[in-house]
């Protein structure tokens, strides 16, 4: 038999394989083209918002606050709110609800927000356009009585002073940050994207002569779904339920780390009381907040105080190293104080439970620096607790402390005054120490009774409000070196604090006392780094190389965050405090990073911390000269004891948690009328049915339609 049919058959098979391969390649190409086309179509349909800062959900022992969207995001027709009278269109008369309300910051008031909250069935979300300058009338979304349930004044500690009965500390507080909203809320910059959104509204949605806008309409979708609900006890219980092999938490406790340093080294492996040790605590808070997540500039509420304390600590370095005073000064920078004093209550708890190298018996007195931005004034107020001063020994020490402060202000352009003796302490970390026992102490502030801060815990508590203004045409490096009016004022305040701390600690050398002066150049550099941008040449010298990449071209966010991560201000203050109070040691990078001064050194790490910083580059060189800094700086846990004790409904400790979320984003697009959408859906369904019927008919007649005919009989030769 001839082999020709076999060869012909093999040739056909080979040809079919080649055709199959081509079809596969073509199919892959088509699928890729379709995927690219889909992305291209999506980009043509949607305009994604680049800068979106959400309001997020927070929870405590009793309730939840903040905002959230549905799981798939909330969609609404855009409406630019022009005045409060224009609310009727959103809440009653507008024919195309729900609405996504765009409003300028001047309309972000309690009156308007409560009306939108009440009519939330017609409100899909709210977008607040952040202004380029601060509102002159002031704005504070915090309460009028900050931390009123977690301070010292209560039913058991002079109830007449509780709940701001005597003094309303934050009279401009409207409480918006502590409300719950059933719709998402975002903040947008007043930039090109925002102008494009408004233009989309005016092109498609704007009402002309009372007539309803015609389709298509401009709409927005906001995604900010929050996982946690109800309260902290509920979300922490859900965290412990394992629904799968990889369970996901729904919320996290607020917290971070306190930053501590002392003028004498403390052995952190030896906990509890130290016989013969007497400590003066110099304290300031590190955190702030605003209505929107990730915008917490905290210029006056936080930065003015801790920058003053950092500068004072630096001014005291030489005086305390050359001749140690009788008492140790413990610098304490507390995190989470905005949320019921997380950091200070944790330190007090650790001292009471022998989890810290000192206990409360070792505490001689407390000096706290609060809001000390002066805004052209030259007066500071020294606040004390009238209840503990009823104890004669406490009162005697407080009076000595006030005399030390007044004597430290001599020959400076400042005066110190005392409020009425019966006035309670303003919100302050010192209150948590007084809850444990009567301790002499003062809180230094820039106000007598009510806060002078018009923007307490808001996005406007920024460099502009602290009067950090620069001459025009300065380069960033020149701005870093320029001594602002704010820096000059805080330099004077820091000098008073430093000298008073030296005297309070038992320092008696008059020459040393007069030599304690704060460097105004350093103060202005710190203010620039925290309130303008942390990515500057001075900060870069102070930090390790692996952290330098995290320095930013914007102001620091002072929101405390959650316990799983160190916040930027905590790390920056840690590095600055080490450089400003520590000393340079000549050891290798390996020994420095391993917390030792030599291969056999196993003790130094218990009393000192070592940090390898990248340093500055010499003139005419691009390579930095790194070095090791030895200091007493330590990080101490700033997590509320309620979470260690699993007391999620505690009335004694902070119970604040932050909900987790999957995605935060927003986009705008044009939406067709309901009739057109239904018509499109109907046509689509008809095409689908027709396609299915055609496919069925072709499939049932396939043997006829695709028959290749009988193959010819193979010839034989």
From TrEMBL:
The chain crosses the membrane at residues 678-698. One of its GO terms (cellular component) is plasma membrane. It is found in: Membrane. Keywords: Glycoprotein, Membrane, Notch signaling pathway, Signal, Transmembrane, Transmembrane helix. InterPro entries: Ncstrn_small, Nicastrin. It holds the Pfam family Ncstrn_small. It is a single-pass type I membrane protein. GO terms for biological process: Notch receptor processing; Notch signaling pathway; protein processing. Its main location: membrane. Residues 54-228 form the Nicastrin small lobe domain. It comes from the Eukaryota. Belongs to the nicastrin family. This is Nicastrin. It comes from Haplochromis burtoni (Burton's mouthbrooder).
């Amino acid at each position: 038999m001839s082999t020709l049919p076999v060869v012909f058959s093999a040739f056909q098979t080979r040809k079919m394989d080649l055709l199959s391969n081509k079809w596969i390649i073509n199919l892959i190409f088509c699928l890729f083209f379709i995927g690219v086309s889909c992305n291209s179509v999506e980009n043509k349909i949607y305009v994604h918002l680049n800068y979106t800062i959400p309001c997020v959900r927070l929870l405590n022992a009793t309730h939840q606050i903040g905002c959230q969207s549905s799981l798939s995001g909330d969609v609404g027709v855009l409406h630019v709110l022009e005045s409060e009278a224009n609310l009727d269109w959103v809440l009653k008369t507008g024919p195309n609800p729900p609405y996504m309300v765009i409003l300028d910051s001047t309309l972000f008031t309690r009156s308007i927000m409560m009306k939108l909250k009440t009519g939330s069935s017609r409100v899909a979300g709210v977008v607040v356009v952040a202004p380029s300058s601060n509102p002159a009338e002031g704005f504070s979304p915090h309460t009028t009585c900050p931390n009123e349930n977690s301070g010292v004044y209560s039913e058991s500690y002079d109830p007449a002073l509780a709940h701001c009965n005597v003094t309303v500390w934050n009279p401009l507080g409207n409480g918006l940050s502590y409300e719950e909203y059933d719709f998402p809320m975002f903040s947008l910059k007043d930039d090109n994207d925002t102008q494009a959104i408004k233009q989309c509204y005016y092109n498609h949605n704007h009402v002309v002569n009372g007539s309803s806008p015609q389709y298509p309409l401009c709409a927005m979708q906001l995604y900010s779904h929050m996982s946690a609900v109800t309260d902290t006890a509920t979300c922490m219980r859900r965290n412990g339920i394992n629904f799968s092999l990889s369970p996901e938490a729904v919320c996290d406790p607020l917290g971070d780390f306190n930053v501590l340093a002392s003028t004498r080294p403390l052995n952190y492996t030896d906990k509890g009381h130290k016989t013969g040790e007497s400590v003066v605590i110099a304290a300031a808070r590190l955190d702030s907040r605003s209505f929107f997540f990730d915008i917490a500039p905290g210029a006056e509420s936080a930065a003015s105080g801790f920058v003053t304390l950092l500068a004072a600590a630096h001014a005291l370095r030489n005086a305390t190293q050359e001749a140690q005073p009788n008492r140790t000064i413990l610098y304490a920078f507390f995190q989470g104080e905005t949320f019921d004093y997380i950091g200070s209550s944790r330190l007090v708890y650790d001292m009471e439970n022998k989890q810290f190298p000192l206990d409360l018996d070792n505490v001689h007195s407390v000096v706290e620096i609060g809001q000390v931005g002066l805004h052209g004034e030259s007066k500071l107020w020294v606040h004390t607790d009238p209840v503990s001063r009823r104890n004669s020994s406490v009162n005697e020490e407080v009076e000595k402390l006030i005399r030390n402060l007044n004597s430290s202000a001599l020959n400076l352009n400042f005066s110190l005054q005392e409020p009425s003796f019966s006035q309670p302490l303003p919100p302050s970390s010192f209150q948590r120490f007084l809850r444990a026992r009567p301790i002499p102490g003062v809180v230094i502030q820039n106000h007598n009774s009510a806060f002078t801060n018009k923007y307490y815990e808001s996005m406007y508590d920024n460099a502009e409000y602290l009067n950090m203004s620069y001459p025009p045409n300065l380069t960033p490096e020149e701005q870093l070196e320029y001594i602002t009016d704010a820096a000059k004022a805080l330099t004077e305040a820091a000098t008073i604090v430093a000298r008073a701390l030296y005297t309070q600690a038992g320092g008696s050398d008059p020459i040393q006392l007069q030599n304690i002066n704060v460097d105004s150049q350093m103060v202005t550099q710190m203010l620039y780094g925290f309130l303008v941008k942390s990515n500057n040449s001075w900060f870069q010298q102070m930090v390790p190389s692996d952290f330098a990449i995290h320095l930013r071209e914007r102001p620091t966010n002072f929101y405390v965050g959650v316990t799983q991560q160190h916040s930027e201000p905590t790390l920056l203050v840690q590095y600055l405090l080490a450089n400003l109070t520590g000393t340079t040691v000549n050891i290798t990078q390996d020994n420095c990073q391993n917390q030792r001064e030599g291969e056999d050194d196993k003790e130094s790490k218990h009393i000192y911390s070592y940090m390898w910083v990248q340093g500055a580059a010499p003139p005419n060189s691009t390579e930095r000269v790194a070095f090791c800094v030895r200091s007493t700086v330590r990080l101490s846990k700033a997590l509320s004891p309620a979470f260690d004790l699993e007391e999620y409904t505690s009335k004694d400790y902070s119970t604040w948690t932050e909900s987790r979320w999957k995605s935060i984003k927003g986009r705008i697009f044009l939406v067709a009328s309901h009739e057109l959408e239904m018509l499109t859906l109907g046509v689509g369904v008809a095409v689908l049915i027709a396609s299915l019927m055609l496919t069925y008919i072709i499939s049932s007649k396939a043997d006829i339609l695709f028959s290749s005919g009988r193959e010819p009989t193979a010839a034989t030769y």
